[in-house]
């Protein structure tokens, strides 16, 4: 069993000085054994004149600290300290200061107000920061154009693989299933008007115009936007970014530009691929559940989907890719101080990435409809 | 989850007297990463209460040896006994009972970056002894930072606000949190200025004396070896080729040892040490007369 320290207070037996009590501590006075008596000793409100530790069989600095603090508080004598105890008592004999161990915590109202103010300030700073970030990127592009040999081809290809090629499996599967759901649910509703054959229009057009590229962008934001933020953020913490700067390599050119280009370019392919997979999903389910077989579904898609739906996709996709990559890299570059920040910034990269993709998608939807591509 | 208090009760480990002369015994240790063999049939004993310096060229596996002993690296072969228990075969409860008896200072300090220095020190205390009151935890943090030689203001600071030397001291304070019997220091004076390094050495020596610590000290610092190490273990050729006092080591006829202690830096440290002793010897009679 675990041993605990014990104490015994003899009232009015304060030794030579007479007044006050005598406390006899016994057993081990160690960090693992004083937990039970420590609060009692702290709360004892009588007067102690003598602290007898001759029955203490083992002591460490925590025990010594408690004895020393008790002695200080009651102005008591310590009796029966052996060599070890004396040495440790001396070691912990440091005036107790009032420096804070924990960070300050203001009252709730103040914290809420402070938090709100900070949020507004962050928002403002973030906007300015993002603008200056964009400026740096434009400058970096400029300098790459002036020194074409610095064009980071290898890094771009590598990022293309990570962003595009490696995500084909999951994006394909997801888009296929979305195509299945749209076709199946759409057919169920359309059949009420006897318009089941319009399922092809629904799946074909919505996949190309909206869902294919949107879902792909969301997946890329989750996969790659977060990866950008975490990688760059960690590199900032380990001072790798600073090291690059001192060597004369621009982190914007070396880290951010390749990710931007790779993500922008690959988004076009991935978005188109997602749309195709979604249409295949719709065709597959209609083959199974509707009266339309696989190949005639695909043939009908060609008839009912206008070419400008493809243009809509091809225009939106690179913009989405750029947004996701920009926000990922930007959040990564904002990491400072500690590991928690990496997590926070990564979350923001994904959340803002998806948010802005959807906002821009809405703007595009209104725009394309009003120019007659409806 | 079981109550933490119960868990501690179960590991009724008698402290201090459960091992003999040697808190650490390593036998026939083999560590290899792929083709590259770091240790082969390495053996080492660390004596109770000593400060053992561990030296060796880069890549001789000083850190790997330390990581093996503290259980962060599983060796291919060999036996490692800490406090008389074989840590490679010990069950998890036993390992916990061993872990709260040692403190480790990593090279960079390895402080938890989201906690203040004071909270860092309290982490092991809260983990092992949840029964301690918050007031006591704060008081413990206070005197531990002072024991480690930090100013009190450091308590409320975050690691990112500290200098390299202060981080090491804060790491030392955390390593000392549980009043360990055994202290592992991985290059504690690397990256410190000479004054800071000398102060750190002195602190280590004093702590070892007052708290009765056994110290396993990896270092490249020749001054540290001369000043505070009772014995020095030399790692070379995948083994510990010698363990002895610095003076005895210098008589050994091994090329690396000769180069190490008698190279330009070794000589400088030696001269400094000799001057120091001379000064002390000259001071003594004066003090005696007075």
Care to describe what's here?
The complex is a heterodimer of chains A (374) and B (290). Chain A is of the alpha/beta class and 374 residues long. Helices cover 70% and strands 8% of the residues of chain A. Chain A has a four-stranded mixed beta sheet. In chain A, helix 1 (35-43) links the parallel strand 2 and strand 3 (48-59). Chain A is elongated, with a radius of gyration of 35 Å. Chain B has one domain: Rossmann fold (3-Layer(aba) Sandwich). In chain B, 42% of the residues are buried. At the A-B interface, helix 1, helix 2 and helix 3 of A face helix 4 and helix 5 of B. Chain A: InterPro entries: ABC_MlaE_roteobac, Permease_MalE. Chain A: The chain crosses the membrane at residues 162-182, 202-222, 260-290, 310-330, 350-373. Chain A: Pfam families: MlaE (PF02405). Chain A: This is ABC transporter inner membrane subunit.
Q: What is the share of helical residues of chain B?
A: 40-55%
Question: What would you call the shape of chain A?
Answer: elongated
Series of H and E elements of chain A: EEHEHEHHHHHHHHHH
Please give the oligomerization state of what you see: heterodimer
Low-confidence stretches of chain A at least 5 residues in length (pLDDT < 50)? none
Q: How large a portion of the residues of chain B is in β-strands, by DSSP E?
A: 15-25%
Per CATH, the architecture of chain B is: 3-Layer(aba) Sandwich
Radius of gyration of chain B: 20 Å
Estimate the mean pLDDT confidence of chain B. 82
Mean pLDDT of chain A: 89
Distance between the termini of chain A: 80 Å
CATH superfamily of chain B: P-loop containing nucleotide triphosphate hydrolases
As for the CATH topology of chain B, it is Rossmann fold
CATH domain class name of chain B? Alpha Beta
Shape of chain B: globular
What class, by secondary structure content of chain A? alpha/beta
Family (chain A): Belongs to the MlaE permease family.
Subcellular location (chain A): Cell inner membrane
Protein name (chain A): ABC transporter inner membrane subunit
Membrane topology (chain A): Multi-pass membrane protein
